Protein: SKA complex subunit 1
Amino acid sequence: MTSTDLQDLSVHMNNKISLIKRSLQLKKMGYDPSQTKVLQKIEQELSDIWYLLDTFQAEILRQKTDLKVIKDLRNSVDETHKTAQHLVENVPSHLPKKAAPTSSATQKTEAVQPDPDKPEHTKNSTKPKQFVRGMEFLVIEEFNQIPTYMKGRMTYDQINAVIKELNDIVKAKYKILNQPLKSMNNTTRNQYHSFKEQEVKETKGQYFFVEADIKEFSNLRVDKKLHGVFNVLRHCQRMREVRGGKLVRYMLL
Structure:
């Protein structure tokens, strides 16, 4: 054992001896009536210190809770900012445009005044253009509420792009159905009768399409991915299936 080790051992033993002596002195003070008030005062001060420590601990816990709430609020604000930034950078190109306002007086004047350059017989022979209602595009709130397992990797713009294609299909189909039979050639007339055969009681007065229409009027591929979009559109109340006669009709809602 080196001299350094002996010195450390000596210091350790002296500290222990001093601690024992101090403990004996304190023990003797407990039996000394003159020291009773001092000990009671020390006890009271220790009690006050413990109370302050408990108060500080409660305040620290409260501030930790407040800090967590502030962090959650900050994260929420950051997410809202990111969403707003995404919306600004990805404004859909298919948003409906507001029609220019026209006064009722102007409309009446235009309706009353005839066009002098047109022959008079065109007034009765012109048939009003048939309006074909399309499927409404999804808004971002609807897209965010679609279950993740259902939309998978599909994006907001991809789904709305399919909706645009489906609307074009319906317009092309019902453009043929709204034509007079006398103006059709043989090919168009065959299409007309084929479309009529697809109609059932549930689709009366409604717009619908079938898979053959997709292949006829668009470049969309009828595959698993497209049927995944159809599941989303049914979930968002944009269309529903009408089955019958070994044919699936996708009816717009």
About this structure: The chain is about 65% helix and 5% strand. The first strand starts at residue 208 and ends at 209.
